[in-house]
TrEMBL record:
Disordered: region residues: 1-40, 152-193
Family classification: Belongs to the bactofilin family.
Organism: Vreelandella boliviensis LC1
Protein name from the UniProt record: Polymer-forming cytoskeletal protein
Pfam hit, one: Bactofilin
Compositional bias annotation for Low complexity: 1-15, 22-38, 158-169
Residue stretches in coiled coil: none
Length: 193
């Protein structure tokens, strides 16, 4: 029935095995240069109230109320995402809704369908057709807000007075006197007269 020789060499089973992953020769837990950059995701059914400091790319599909600081990486806001607060990032990709100030060291892109109310400070800005923007834009790379926000990230420490005990974000927020805030203050002052 079967025609198999008794003295036939054994089959080479190593050919059917999958070789081990040789992409990383480092020991476990040791970062490698070919490693994929890490990414944090705030899911579509997640709400965050408070400040976020991230040392990796951040994608927001849910809702965030607070300051997002991701100075050396990219912050991406998905089409269904919502941010109520300021965002400091190397690169910004905005497709959802933002009520707050956006500060990007490199580039900010406001995609079609996005709604942004606030101040945008970035040396390079892309506003796509179909996006909605209310506020002011400053594309001066020498902007004081940009310099102070990214002083550590750029490695170019400028000589400043000694730091006060108040948080830096408070100083940064005060630097954004938007037209709507000034208008509100004027209206309120008139109402109190």
């Amino acid at each position: 029935m079967f025609n198999k020789a008794k003295n036939a060499p054994p089959e080479n089973k190593a050919a059917t095995l999958i070789p081990p992953d040789t992409r990383s020769s480092a020991t476990p837990g040791t970062p490698t240069s070919s490693a994929r950059p890490s990414l944090s995701v705030i899911g579509g059914h997640t709400q965050v109230e408070g400040d976020i400091n991230s040392d990796e790319d951040l994608t927001v599909e849910g809702r965030v109320s607070g300051i997002i600081t991701c100075k050396q990486h990219t912050v991406t806001l998905g089409a269904s995402g919502y941010i109520n607060g300021d965002v400091f990032a190397h690169t910004l990709q905005i497709s959802g809704e933002v009520i707050g100030n956006l500060v990007a060291l490199h580039r900010a892109t406001i995609h079609k369908g996005a709604q942004v109310s606030g101040t945008i400070v970035a040396p390079c800005l892309v506003l796509e057709d179909g996006s909605i923007f209310h506020g002011s834009i400053d594309m001066n790379p020498d902007n004081e807000v940009l310099k102070s926000a990214f002083n550590d990230a750029t490695g170019s420490a400028t000589k400043t007075s000694p730091k006060t005990s108040s948080p830096k974000t408070t100083v940064d927020k005060r630097a954004f006197a938007s037209a709507s805030d000034a208008e509100h203050d004027t209206t309120e002052a008139k109402a109190n007269d």
